[in-house]
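Re: beginner question about structure tokens

> Can someone show what the tokenized structure looks like for a real chain? I only ever see the sequence side.

Sure, here's an example I had lying around. Input first:
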Amino acid sequence: MKIGVALRELYDSESALAGELLRLADRHAKEQEIHHVAQDLVRWSREHVREIVAAGPRYGLDLGNPDLENPEPPTEEAGEIPGEDSGPELLLLADLRRLYRMAAGVSLDWDLLGQGAQVVADPDLLALTKRCHPQSLRQMKWADAMLKTVSPQILAS
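And the corresponding structure tokens:
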């Protein structure tokens, strides 16, 4: 079974999303809604990671004890972040775009794990996906809504 591979990928993507949410909250502390909502959303990813770690041993996977308070910062892709001479608005737009893509990837990973859980008839793993996937969708939808809210004013200025 390759469920362990899916769990490992989900562990990595949820951990990276938690790190990105923390980075977004810290980098844009002056944007109150961004700062506070991102801090709230990171709690979901942290809990998801804990639950993935707990599910791992059933599939021969030891994910250790993650440092959820200080996750590894995600690596930035080339061309993602505007130059230092760019204003904070473009930085916010780039950060929200990256967050949206990461949250979409996490959502997809939960969906794939749910499909696998159905095939191997693991009711606990399926329950985990049904509990966590809706929250990952909400994280993605929040990032999308923020992009639609801030992009017109940023791009038109």
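Each token stands for a local structural state, so reading them left to right follows the chain. Residues 123-156 form the longest helix (34 residues).
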